[in-house]
Amino acid sequence: MKVTLQHLTKKFPSRDKKDPRDVIAVNDFDFEIPDGKLIGLLGPSGCGKSTVLNMICGLLAPTSGRIFFDEEDVTDLPAEERGVGMVFQNYALYPHMTVLQNIMFPLGNFKGDKKLSKAEMRARAEEVARLVQIDQLLNRKPGEMSGGQQQRVAIARALVKMPRILLMDEPLSNLDARLRLQTREEIRRIQNETGITTIFVTHDQEEAMSISDMIVVMKDGIFQEMGRPQDVYDDPKNLFVAKFLGTPAINVFDAEVRDGMLRIGDEAVLSVPGVPDQPVWAGIRPEGFIPDPEGPFTASLDRVEVMGRDYSIISRHPACEAPVIRSIIDSTIKIDTEAETIRFRLKPRKVHIFSKITEDRLYFDEAAL
Ligand code: ATP
Fold first, then answer.
1. What is 3-239's CATH superfamily?
2. Share in percent of the chain as helix, strand, coil (round to 5)
3. How far does the centroid of ligand 1 lie from the alpha carbon of residue 25, in Å?
4. Which of 22, 95, 169, 202 has the fewest CB atoms lying closer than 10 Å?
5. According to the model, what pLDDT value does residue 335 have?
6. Cβ atoms within 10 A of the Cβ of 275, count?
7. Residues of the chain where predicted confidence (pLDDT) is lower than 50
């Protein structure tokens, strides 16, 4: 099922006496979520992610705009008639019920020609329990299970209704690091097997990038960019998206373009044909630095951290926004760790420059290099 958001906006009345302006939690969202994909909705805390989900499932009415499931306008349809499954951060299972009873519970609400017999409910519940691999635990109570297992029960309970769309709001937040990793792989597998259009909300960019077919990045209620994770990482539209994606984060420098050259401090570090002279933010991905004694960019060398396959070189430059520059280098390259300075060449595809006024990307012609 395709989901289309048309100029979707949600305003909440201000509760702040000093600032009576409405809070615009979601501002003119206008995009299409393709059928059968896993979409990661990504942004910092408070940017409006949960508000978007709550409007899609019908728990919140938009202030303006429309929501379509395929061609059907569902904006005014009550939540229970939308056929949406929800999974939240806190699993919200009934503690006194067994796993089987928890999964079967939503089926008891089916009315009219959708009403199921006890045996049909049980068969459906057992089938989804197998899908999420908790069929061995059906007689346990939630308190007798790990967090990861409880979250699988919550996913099974959402799936048992055979939803048209599955919405997940930070479903991994309550799990420890190992379980998070395992459960996110599970979510990917379950989504692949069911093919249900799934929207997965998280503030963790690594999590979103690792399992999503596409990510949507938002900031302060405003849509920033949508695309395949690697494409958005490689081709960010603005400084916010560039900084939000990637660990270690992109290194940002106070820089300038003059005569077609990107200048950081006194050095002309890269040719950027086609960009008019102006002050800019220069973002260099950690993997964009190549140590080279003849390289145009000089930094003071702090230390080298060995990470097995790669080195992480920690260096400093006065124009860098952060206290240190983090670069990731192939460990076959020899580095003089005793030296006071280190010089780099830069990979043009890993360097992005942004207007200081709008923070939008300024594109240069890499092909001409
Ligand atoms: P988090 O990652 O912290 O859950 P989020 O991205 O999901 O955040 P939302 O919960 O959607 O963000 O909130 C978006 C904005 O709307 C925030 O500024 C929040 O304070 C505000 N907001 C949310 N619900 C209400 C409400 N009922 N009344 C007033 N303001 C609200």
1. P-loop containing nucleotide triphosphate hydrolases (3.40.50.300)
2. 30, 35, 35
3. 6
4. 95
5. 86
6. 19
7. none
